[in-house]
């Protein structure tokens, strides 16, 4: 099984929230299990709860430690439900949605090479040329 952990904390329905909703919808169309550990305001958390389905699990964050607390909560959940040493656990920051689009390629590479950990990094030239960076810098 492939688990994707998404820690969330939203106080409004801005761009980050919309990107997260898009990621959840993408996960729904896969065989992956999305585990959203949410620490958002109540009405947004209630909206997330409505997204629960066979492969989307919503957990309320129970500790104050933001991202790392969410990851630990998700890992405990996976440990409780998984009985397979072949499972793959991915961490995805919801607003970094471009990573999700490359997940199949990454997983294939990892399986071929027998790797169990993949740590992505940014290519500075690509980040600098992104639309968001240009928009923020006025270029």
Please provide a written account of the structure.
By secondary structure, the protein is of the alpha/beta class. It has a single domain, classed as Spore Coat Polysaccharide Biosynthesis Protein SpsA, Chain A. It is built from 7 helices and 4 strands. The chain has a 4-stranded parallel sheet, with helices on both faces. Helix 1 links the parallel strand 1 and strand 2. The longest helix has 16 residues. The N and C termini lie far apart (43 Å). The C terminus is likely disordered.
CATH class: Alpha Beta
Number of helices: 7
Q: From the structure provided, what is the oligomeric state, counting identical versus distinct chains?
A: single chain
| Major sheet strand order | 3-2-1-4
**Whole-number count of domains:** 1
């Amino acid at each position: 099984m492939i688990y994707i952990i998404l820690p969330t904390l939203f106080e409004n329905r801005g761009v980050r929230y919309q990107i997260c909703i898009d990621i959840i919808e993408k996960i729904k169309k896969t065989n992956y299990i999305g585990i959203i550990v949410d620490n958002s305001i109540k009405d947004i958390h209630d909206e997330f709860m409505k997204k629960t389905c066979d492969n989307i699990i919503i957990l309320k964050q129970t500790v104050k430690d933001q991202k790392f607390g969410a990851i630990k909560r998700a890992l405990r959940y996976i440990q409780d439900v998984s009985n397979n040493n072949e499972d793959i656990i991915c961490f995805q920051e919801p607003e970094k949605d471009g990573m999700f689009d490359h997940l199949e390629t990454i997983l294939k590479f990892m399986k071929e090479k027998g790797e169990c950990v993949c740590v992505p990094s940014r290519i500075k030239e690509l980040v600098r040329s992104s639309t968001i960076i240009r928009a923020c810098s006025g270029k």
